[in-house]
Amino acid sequence: MLHLSSWEIGPIFRAMTRNKVGAVLIALQVAVTMCIIVNAVHILMERTMQMARDSGIDEANSFYLSSTGFADDFNDQVVIQTDLDAIRALPGVIDAMQINAIPISGGGWSMGLQTQPGAEFEGVGTAVYMVDDHVLNTLDLELIAGEAFKPSDIRWRQRSQRDWPAEIIITRALAENLFPEQSYQDTVGKTLYINDDEPVIVKGIIDKLQAPWVGWERLENAMLSPEQTLFSSSTYFIRTEPGRLDELMPAVEQMLADSNKGRVVRGLRSMQETRDRTYRRDQAMIKILTTVMITLTLVTALGIVGLASFNVNRRRKQIGTRRALGASQVSVLRYFMLENFLISSMGVILGAVLTVGLNIYLVQSLGLTKLHWWLIPVGMLTLWLVGQLAVLGPARRAAATSPAIATRTV
Amino acid sequence: MLNMQNVTKIFRTDLVETRALSDFNLHVKEGEFVTVTGPSGSGKTTFLNIAGLLESFDDGVYDLDGENVRHLNDTQRSRLRNEKIGFIFQSFNLIPDLDLFDNVDVPLRYRGFNGSERKRRIERCLELVGLANRMKHLPAQLSGGQQQRVAIARALAGEPRFLLADEPTGNLDSKMAHSVMQLLKDINDEGTTIVMVTHDPSLAREAKRNIFVKDGKVSDVTHISASAPEPIASISASGARHV
Fold first, then answer.
1. I want to staple A233 with a disulfide (CB 3.0 to 4.6 A). Which of A68, A143, A181, B48 is the partner?
2. Owning domain of residue B32
3. Which of A164, A171, A208 is nearest to A188 (CA)?
């Protein structure tokens, strides 16, 4: 029969207060481990969620490359049209277009859009993608309001040109940032102002398209401008049928290189590779933090094993005496498990305070988000569990102590 | 109370086999005070360990208070030790990190008594050994004699019917030893059966009967009290004599 009195919580606690150095050190170790692990898990979750954000385009089947003409007779406008016609005609290519910047790549254009004209009004920042009428099909975007670009909407833009087309398409997020009080559908047809006072009309709304800068807080603010660029270099964005990417990437590169010897074709890269490169630091951080967490947990577990083993060896006579006085093997096992539970409890309570403290510091100094409250109880439970598992081995050895030890004088 | 018949205990290693007890026979009646003497290595401690259910044995029969203990499992042996046997050790075996109250409390917690019952028993037993005013002291703050008194209080707290004492005065000076011995005699006078292992012949003479152990067997039995000689029919010793 299980009697609560035989759990010895009071005597264990009182004994610990009289011999506290080891217990305090382990409790501190548990607290620091919990503080670091919980905050690390929070950072990991945040990074993982950032990395998992949908860019809005068909990344798995898309790639891009650039063409830079150098020959004296190189005609950008003709070459671009010829190239796009040739690429679109390739079997396995769903669609292709010229674009000035690649989503989530790290480099691109941005502008400010205002709802009222005038330099005194604050604009809402947006990424600018200069695209043609193939944009929805090439990027696999969903038009959720208004109209798509027609071929007649597309214009050619020179490098020195400052003005903007009459109509643009914007993302739903940008629409909601511009007019937070209204439904995004109501933004269609509204006039916005670029360069302080140049009017542009919202022709359509797309569901989602990320900007090139993944660290930007308004990542989903993007506008599509119906124009093809006549800059020194042209970037072609190509979407293929599923499973044809690996085959078509070198094929397109080769075709472009062969079609005109007056240019250089370079920068061939898939969107998957772009994503990997963009989030490389985040992935490295995830690996480092995971390693730190595992190492810390192991060190803490070993510390607990060490203290428990030391205590078992130091108290062999005492354990034998307890056994002689009527402690069963289960009682001895429970004694050490409970002792560890009390030490871990002190550790995780202190750890919870330290965890919140560190998070407040990280929020204030590094702009991290606030900790999810449930990570703290999960962290406490985890450290409790680690402690109990770590102490199990030494506790079982203690339980196996013969009561006859009690009568030995050495 | 305690009945051992042909109990044999053999310690084995890879190379050596040592017969610590060989056909050991002893019967201790309820209320007796028996001392066990013998040279070092004679088997006194092995007898004590087996009698106290601290160790198993290889052959023979051992009945404790009418219960055959040979095939009891660890939990059953622990329960029997806790309920029926009180232990007093040569080096006191108090738990250094616990105060006197908690030390005496140890066996009572395993017994499952509630808090108020445990408190009543602890206070009564510490009162009995004259240390009720030092309940919150740690063992290290007491003299050797006082520590042994605490150990006796701990042994008595569960109100066992059988006290096993292993050289209880071995680490005490003569004055303290006499005091502890007197306490044991008082406890015995109140009906508790006591078996005490000792090296000291003068202490052995204070019991009602002395068992001399040699080579793992009872080799001699001495009845100390002339008034009522104890039956020795169950003892396979070489002889018995009255002092």
1. A68
2. 2-242
3. A171
